[in-house]
Amino acid sequence: MNKNNTILIVEDEMIIAANISLQLTHLGYEVTGIIPRAEEVLPQIRQHIPDILLIDINLKGNLDGIELAHLIQKEYKIPIIYLTANSDDAHFSRAKATNPYSFISKPFKKLDLQRAIELTLARIQEEQNHKKNLDTVSEEPFILSNCIFVRSHDKMVKIYIDNILYIEAERNYCKIHCKDKEHLLVMTLKDIEEKLVSKTLLRIHRSFIVNLSHIDEIATNHVVIAKKAIPLSAELKKKLLLHIQKV
Hints:
Blueprint: E1 6-10, H1 14-26, E2 30-35, H2 41-47, E3 52-56, H3 65-73, E4 80-84, H4 89-96, E5 102-105, H5 110-133, E6 142-143, E7 147-152, E8 155-160, E9 164-170, E10 173-178, E11 182-185, H6 189-195, E12 201-205, E13 208-211, E14 217-218, E15 222-225, E16 228-231, H7 234-246
Parallel strand pairs: 1-2, 1-3, 3-4, 4-5
Antiparallel strand pairs: 6-7, 7-8, 9-10, 9-13, 10-11, 12-13, 14-15, 15-16
């Protein structure tokens, strides 16, 4: 992402807000406004949605910064960076519930501000890249006894179970690792485990299902498949060893 990203500052201490605005401008970012009161933020956002919101937690008035964030998130998905002079556990727990991209503790240096913005932009870029990958995702794959059909762009692609190395949980998705390619599915690992009926596929960790026929090594707390170390939970290790004897 380039630095022509827009940032809206919500801060009721105008000297601090002006200083932040000046520093962001020097760093090459566009400040779309400085708003001192929470009640004025949503009308501003409806006119112009910023790329990032910089919100002071301790706003004066009927709403503090965290309550404001909850209101904004009902309508918009805008990355939030909190400014705070109060870093106690209670405030942190409340703020954490809004999934902020970063925190900046007052008083802060220009480098603190710069790094928080850069880390946020890096995360935005990662999320955008992840979203692009969803073009190859199938929401409901066809699962047969020896293969899975997943959507890739405008067609269905067959994946033979024998070619699956392992399946990895990734948030609300599953990533199927094959010998020559990876595929994303909009399914939890639990859902795909319930739908797949195969003697060679076995869950060995809360985040991994492996193909027993491709295991090269079994260690104390991991297995190795295609030079990849995959964690093995202690409670599932005995189940794994029993399955290998049967395969």
